[in-house]
Amino acid sequence: MMKSKDMICDSSSLISLADSCLLPALKAVKDRLNGKIFISPRVEYESITHPREIKEYSLAALRLKQALVDGTLTLIQSPSAKVKTQEILRHANNVYSVDRRSMHIIQDGEAEMLALAAELGVQNILMDERTTRMLSEAPWELHAHYEREFGKPVKVNGAELEWFAKFTKGMSIFRSSEIVVAAYELGYFKNYRGMEREMLEASLYALKFAGCGISFEEIQEFMGRKK
Hints:
single chain; alpha/beta; five-stranded parallel β-sheet
């Protein structure tokens, strides 16, 4: 699944794993790879600092804080990445426009993460946020989605799309669901004797309901292959 040992995460994937009590699966994959899992300052704020102040979200935030304390996650800062972050936002948020107005589709956290990935040379991107992933992997499917959503033509700026495609070329973007699948294949659920596949399926559904962009059909198709 992964091209190298290290990876970098966005807020959406970490929150999905924390909400589903599956952060140990992330640690299991990290330990087997013997690499590091980086997060950016903005991702720390979005997934730990800010939600920690909100009772409804504080439990997941505390789980992630502990993951940072115990070394599962590594906070990385780079003043030089700020310029690249703004550049990513400028290009990505001008790919699509409707009624002559550019569509703001990428947020600060995702842009900062991508900027740091490029600076560090990290190819593995853990991201549950569907829009940014589709912009990289399937921009014309995303375009069709927006046209259906708005019920009107959506213009594509080819130059901006080409810039973003070149920037993300070589990056391997995957979801929290794929982390859990990798953990399963490493024997993460082995203590649930006779229930390993059931645990995997339950975990995938838990991730979906926690925000991971995996469809019911994908879960069913995957479980059909894992026998």
